[in-house]
Known about the structure:
Mean pLDDT: 96
Bound molecules: 2-phosphoglycolic acid
Number of helices: 12
Strand order of the largest sheet: 1-2-3-4-5-6-7-8
Strand content: 15-25%
Number of strands: 8
Order of helices and strands: EHEHEHEHHEHHHEHHEHEH
Largest sheet: 8 strands, parallel, barrel
Oligomer: single chain
Low-confidence stretches: none
Structural class: alpha/beta
Helix content: 40-55%
Radius of gyration: 17 Å
Amino acid sequence: MKNTLLVANWKMHLNTSQASMLVHRLQERTRIHRGIEIVLSPSMLVLQPLSTQIDRRKFRLAAQNAHYKDEGAFTGEVSFNMLRDLVHYALVGHSERRIYFNESLELIRDKVAAAIRNDISPILCVGETAQERKDGHTRQVLHDQVTSALSNLTARDVSKVVIAYEPVWAISTFGGEVAKPEQAAEAIAFIRHQVEQLYGPKAARNIRVLYGGSVDDSTVRDYLEVDGCDGALVGGASLNPYKFAGIIESAYRLRHELGEDD
Ligand code: PGA
């Protein structure tokens, strides 16, 4: 049985002291759960101070972005190479980066490869816009995003990748319509099928696939119950310690009910 992976994407919120306060509150409310892996993704500036504050038995860290080259004349950028040893994970290709910063399929492919090269597990975010869904292009979009991002990897590399299905229309930033669990289920199955086409059934079984988009403490269970869903990527609700602790608690209760809480 795989771990349940819960990722808090704080986006461009919280300065160092606000982030420290939130971690303090979360730490008080979070028990250590074997079987549940909780990852905090604060701004770049906050990663270093949080790394000394967090209880590593409870939390891991993720970057929200990084540059695909390891070093060089790229003023203002931070590389995956600089983040190694500091973070376990990095978000790659979040829809806000694809849309606001025009990140292309090729750039995202290079970032996934850079993360792997530096021993950081990329959390590759994929998902269709409302228009693409309306036009019946959801599968095509997911196919293109998944196959291009994974194209430079070996089967061993792929086992370190996490894929987060985040339909753009369900993310709070872009409308926050609540996706039906059946819609998440269909997309997650399709994503796994793409991985199977590229890397075979074992890779498809083992890769972790998350759901993200307006997940909160009242809806997380519906998504975690979806067949093949290994966790959640949480934005807005992760900034509220009560809600995020509630999300962790729901995940715990579900594992407990399924007899998977060792
Ligand atoms: P949301 O964000 O939970 O606020 O919709 C999710 C995300 O953008 O990762």
